[in-house]
Amino acid sequence: METPINGFRGLLASVNAIDFPGAEGFLGSRASLMLDVVFVAMLAVIPVMGWSIYQVRRRRRFALHKQVQLALAALLLVAVVAFEVDMRLYGWEERAAGELGGKASLLIWRALYAHLIFAISSTALWPWVIYKAWRRFPVPPVPGEHSRSHIFWARLAAIDMLLTAITGWIFYALAFVS
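Request: output the structure for the sequence above.
Response:
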């Protein structure tokens, strides 16, 4: 019996002629569903993060900045945990190679390593910046003794997050589009 869900799965399966393990993505590449989710999530997170920084730097909306950063952190935590589960269960290398049992090229591995440098460091840095801000800024948040340190570390974390996104998009394009 053809159900709407089965019809949708058939549509997704037609995107890729190979039946890779795991759920198919929605962007039309060989990537899995969670790879596509993280790709799109970073497309949303980076501009929102920039807007949040603008709000605090130019408009002095400290409480809004705090709320937005906490929401972004929660969103990314959920997306990254789901992504990591997907990678552990189904892998990515066959999809990158374009064939079952295939191996990713050296270029793809290099792109992944470059991405992991920033992804791992931002996974440590961003939560640390949030934790220190949570502990050291008053409620409601206003500039204080911690501001100078926060600006330095938050700027570093924002650059790290941007580089995580850029290197992730490059890895995605090399591994699952080309």
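The radius of gyration is 19 Å.
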